[in-house]
Specification:
This protein is of the alpha+beta class and 219 residues long. It has two helices and 13 strands; from the N terminus they run H-E-E-E-E-E-E-E-E-E-E-E-E-E-H. The chain has one domain: Immunoglobulin-like, CATH 2.60.40. The radius of gyration is 19 Å and the shape is globular.
Length: 219
Amino acid sequence: MLNLLRVCLLVGAVLFVGATQASAASIGPTCTTCQGSIYTLEIVGLADTDLYADDHLFDTYVVKLTVDTAGYTGDGVRIDEVAVKVSSGADSSTLTSVKSSGSDTEYKDYWSVLAGGLGAFGCTGSGSGYECSDWIGSSGGAYTPSTFTWTFNIDISGPLFSFASTDPNLLPSIKVRYVADDGKKAGSLVSEKVPEPTTLALLGVGMAVAAVRRRRAQR
């Protein structure tokens, strides 16, 4: 019985570490809507605070989105909204930091965070699981070319998504809006799933196999 208890404690510790350790994946510069930029989404781990205590679950995660626009090929001059999704739902969220690479300047006060996704005209206020950060300064945004990182605390209300999932519906997602000088969207709205490279390859193989099966079924 003692040995069984030790095994259970060890397994529990391993599962806890696996659930809370940092994980990250990048996409770009050649994905469908990337437009030459590189996007890195990181699930750092559990936050020091629980934003929604009513569910009696300590399930607030630190999530970072970094956008490197050094290779940006579009017509936009800045980014004025970004959105992230790491679960099917979210109870609450805060934006804890917005910084440019190589600088200690904090830009958080120029951004707000809203529940919901991101569309052509900005944060939509809808879209389960998405949290959107909106530029609220008098002008500007995250100017290109530059590298900016947005750091969120997100209290999830569903399972935490994994970069290693082979189910596209369970992969973390990002959205980014580039705008011109007049504040209107420039080019495509960035809207991408963020899988690990090996997962992306597996998804590609799975889609190819499915296509072959469909062709055979039609013969």
